[in-house]
Amino acid sequence: RRINVNGALSQGVYAKDVILNIIRRLGVAGGKGFAYEYGGAVVEKMSMEERMTICNMSIEGGALVGYVNPDATTFEFLKGREFVPKGEGFDRAVAYWRSVTSDPDARYDDVVNMDGAKVEPTVTWGINPGQAVGISEKLPLPEEFSDPEGAKKAYEHMGWRPGSAILGTPINVAFVGSCTNSRLSDLRAAAKIAKGKKVHPGIRALVVPGSAGVKALAEKEGLHKIFIEAGFEWRAAGCSMCLAMNPDKLQGREICASSSNRNFVGRQGSPGGRTILMSPAMVAAAAVNGKIVDVREYA
User: pLDDT for 76-97, tens place per residue?
Assistant: First the structure.
């Protein structure tokens, strides 16, 4: 399946918003039996880290694999890295990588087109990544879903009412991390929002880099100081609250604004806990406001 995200994204809209919209449209089981090939002007303009966010969540959409055809952005990203061939070996590798890209006249079992300009900051409201809405939207009616019973179960767990707004929902915990959104560009985006502000009183806020290498680079740029001064916990690399690692767990009915990839019941450690997926910038904005806000007001 070829998924084209055409046009351009608006300010304050990120790769996480794109993939949440894709899963929302196609469903958490929509990718069964498919490989997802992402393309279009929006994806072509993305950095490798942004592309990684989209591909990372292909499995949440049920796909066997998600990929972006290798291009100049790919080659530039790889050049000079530790385990990448050097010199003529790199040139041969690039030639091979170019050879495996899809031909311009390739035929697909299915083609999906999306307008990037229509994507807004997006958050989940339910108990799977496909149950999502744009930040300006009202929560949908169960009968609007292909699985109305699943939507009803989500509302029962989350405690929301169909037709209400997700904007302004209070949170208890803010988590920037996970393999989906803990790369350097993610931390930069969150730090840009947090800089000069303070975590809202009563909010537990964590930033967990995706690797020791990312942590070192972030600290070299001074990002850790921005987070610490704002009241976030700056942690060592790891999975942390994405899957309730060690003490990083929700308690009772706590609500977590999370940049992770899964919002299943109990995923973050408490059977009654509630996870709302969003971009790292949205998480940072929620942390300093104590509630879900539209990050475009801060971008």
Answer: 999 999 999 999 999 999 999 9
